[in-house]
């Protein structure tokens, strides 16, 4: 299984980006039943959870992104997305997708998001 993330870039504050993460090599039924999420890492800080789908399909968001970010997925494409609106400089970081299968974590390669003021 390999997670391929894309969609990062540089935007000004208030702009939008949409991240995508494709789970190559993952069986469809496994994808639909797995917990998955997006994490963010900035220099000097630990990787932090931004948004997630729990294994029962519920969504959770970090307080700082509520109302601005939306996690979604397309099961048939085995892809999880993160729509980021009204971006702030504090959202700058490397974003990683994660899928957890039977307590094993799979990570994407990270995609850089830079938000300038």
Task: Please render the helix and strand layout as text.
Blueprint: E1 2-6, E2 9-12, E3 17-24, H1 28-33, E4 35-41, E5 48-53, E6 59-61, E7 69-74, E8 79-84, E9 93-101, E10 104-107, E11 111-116
Parallel strand pairs: 2-11
Antiparallel strand pairs: 1-3, 3-8, 4-5, 4-9, 5-6, 7-8, 9-10, 9-11
Structure description:
- The chain is mainly beta and 117 residues long.
- Helices cover 5% and strands 55% of the residues.
- The protein has one helix and eleven strands; from the N terminus they run βββαββββββββ.
- The strands form two sheets. Strands 2, 4, 5, 6, 9, 10 and 11 form a seven-stranded mixed β-sheet that branches.
- A hairpin with a 4-residue loop joins strand 7 (69-74) and strand 8 (79-84).
- The longest helix is centred in the first third of the chain and has 6 residues, at 28-33.
- The radius of gyration is 13 Å and the shape is globular.
- The model has no long low-confidence stretch (mean pLDDT 96).
